[in-house]
Amino acid sequence: MRRRTLLAATWAAPATALAGCATRRRRAADGSVTLRFQSLAWQQESIEVNKRLVREWNAAHPKVTVEYVQGSWDGVHDQLLTAFEGGEAPDVIHDASDDLADFAYGGSLADLTGLLPRALTQDIPEHSWRTTTFGDGVFGVPFLQEPRVIMADLDRLERARVRIPTAGEPWSWPEFEEVARRLTGEGRYGVAWPLKEPVSATLNLSLSTGGQTFHRGADGKVTVRFDAAEQRVPRVVHDQVNTDRSAARTTLGMGGSDTLPGFFDGRYAMVPLGFSYRQQIVQQAPRGFRWTVLPAPAGPGGDQRQGVSPQTLSIAEDSPYREEAAAFIAFLLRPRNMVRLALGDWMLPTGRQALAHPALHTERRGWATGTALARHLRSAPAQSVRGYPEWKDKIATPAFQEYYSGAIGEDSLRHKLVADGNLVLRRYQR
Fold it and tell me: Which residues form the signal peptide (predicted)?
């Protein structure tokens, strides 16, 4: 469906807060209010930046006090679901765009159309707003994102005399496969794929080969396909593990952090990871370890598109203080503050002005490589698909894990993703 244009000069008037909530949480006699802001920041730098911004807001807005509530990414969906059902949701909610669909369609989040200042809505690109658009409404502000990149042992690459790719001249997928083979031998592997959670990484990287996975028909209903474009990236991983033996089988069940010790001691020359993992490498790498950040391989014609699910800020539908909550979000996401949040989380800001900041264009620690990839980032394929969490957990995760390990072949993988997967999605689209 065509969404309301966020970048229009004028927006519709903001909706009125629900009467029940207004009764439950009245303003003080002097007009002051308290907003609850649940942050999912977990790295110490990020927590400190968020808390500092809250203090700055409170100092400048004595009648609109923000209470910082520390949340956790672990189990956030269930935690929010319980909070919404119990009428105890925070006013301002930190989450990720791929977690919003059920809350948006279910009426738990406020439509932000008309609530945010034009300077903010115009600063964030249209393709980023699409990640938080569901139906005709906008239910979150996308503000931080991270491409998937390759963390590489620079000494290993130089000794193998392989071409070092850049954001302007990335490897193709076949070239990446060849490099991984050249870096393999004597108990060491060219690449480690940490795929404990294989679905989002697979689907998002598959955009570079034209893979969409989820296809919306003229009737608005979504079906799963697993055709040639969707098969290309999974086949690379499968063949590296099971045919070339250039990828370590043992890392398939690992999270990203679990692979770092093997990366540091030379077992793995390359590890595809989210951009923010650079912080852990800086903190944990042994003295003298030389590493670099490489762009993910490109698809046909140099296609570098990747799917992303940005971090988001939303407002609870039940909040009686939507205008105040929106003003706080606008403060957090002023260009200068968005840069601070990005640096604290080692991620990229969505805002154009923040992305242009010199601190994000330095070659040091790979910032420039990541920033150069920002223009290729697109909404993750599963972004607006109702039933995606169940499809991912019950169908796609075990299916990809079996395929990557060699337990099943490509035909069985397709059957599970498509035939079994579409049965799940149909239940959400009746």
Answer: 1-19
